[in-house]
D-3-phosphoglycerate dehydrogenase
Amino acid sequence: MRQERVVARFEAWINPIFDKIINERSDTKLEVIDFNDSEESVWAKLKTVDVLHLRPTLDEIPPKWRVSKELLAKCPNLICVSSTGAGYDTIDVEACTKAGVAVVGQMGINATSVAEMAVGLMLSVSRRITESDRVLKSRRGFSREELMGHDLCGRVLGIVGLGYAGSATAKLANAFGMKVIAFDPYLTSEEMTSRGATSVDWEQLLNESDIISLHCPKDNSTRNMFNAEAFSKMKKGAQFVTTARGGIHDESALYQALSTEHLSGAGLDVWEEEPPALDHPLLSLPNVVATYHTAGVSHEGRYNVASQGALQIREILDGNKPSRLINPEVWEVFLKRNSL
C-alpha cells in the first residue's frame, strides 16, 4: 500500500472542516486544484490523485473535469470519487465501476436542511409570503384579503421519492397537520407507512395532492416526469414544489400550467440551467417563489456534508466499506486496488 494518499478537490467554497479532517492524517495529503489553471497543470495534479472530491452540479464543473471514462483513463491512481452532495451528476458511475473506482456520495446528510427548505417553499407559496413582501415594499392601497393564502394544516401533500429528504419532509408535514401521501416505486407500502406517508400510485398522487413536492433523483426514469400531461392531471389550484433536480419537471409546461391558473403557485429551488436566465418566463410570475439550489445550503447542512464527506474518505482509504457507496459491485475490485 502506498505510504501517502492524495485527496484532491477543486477550488471552490467548502466548509473548512473538510480540509481540517483530511489534514489530520499524516499519511494523507490534500491537493486543492484550480481548474482555471492550465490544462497541463491540472492534469499533472490529477494523475497523482487517489481520491477526488467534487461538486455534483453540472453547471459548476466544466465538462472536461467531470469524471468520465476519458478522465479515468488519464488518472491511474484514482481509486475513489466522492461527491460533495447527495447527487452525482458530474460522475459517470458506470465508467467508474468498469475502472474499479468506488463512488461515494453524501446521501441523507443534509436531509433536514432540504426538508426545511421544502416546507419553507410550501409556506411561502401557500401563505403568499414572498408575494406579500413584494407588494408591501412597492405599493399602497391594497387590502390584506387580496393576499389571502391557504394554511398547510389539513391539506394533502404528495411526495415523489420517500428517501432521506422525502422522509424528513413527510415528518415535518405531519407535524403541520397535513395528510401525507407518496409515490415511490422502490419502497413497499409498509416501508412508506413507517416513513410517515401513505403509499399511492402515480395517478392518485396527481389527482389527490394539494401540493406536490419532489425528492427523487434525476435519471432516465424521472427526466421530464412532470410534463404537460402530468401537470394537467393535478388538481386545479394545486401547487408544485421541488428541491430535487432541474430536468425532472418541464419548465415550459410548468409555466403554461401556472400562467393559465390551472396551478396556483410553485416553489422552485432547482432549474434546468442554474442559475436560470434573468428573463426566464417562470421568474416573471408573481406566484412563483424562486431560489438558487440552496435547499441543502445552510451553515449546518454544509458543515455536516463537509465533515461526513471527509470522514467517509478516511474510512474508505482504511479499507472499510462506507455506508454511502453508490456502486457496491465495485467493492472487491476496489479493495485489491487499494492494497497496491
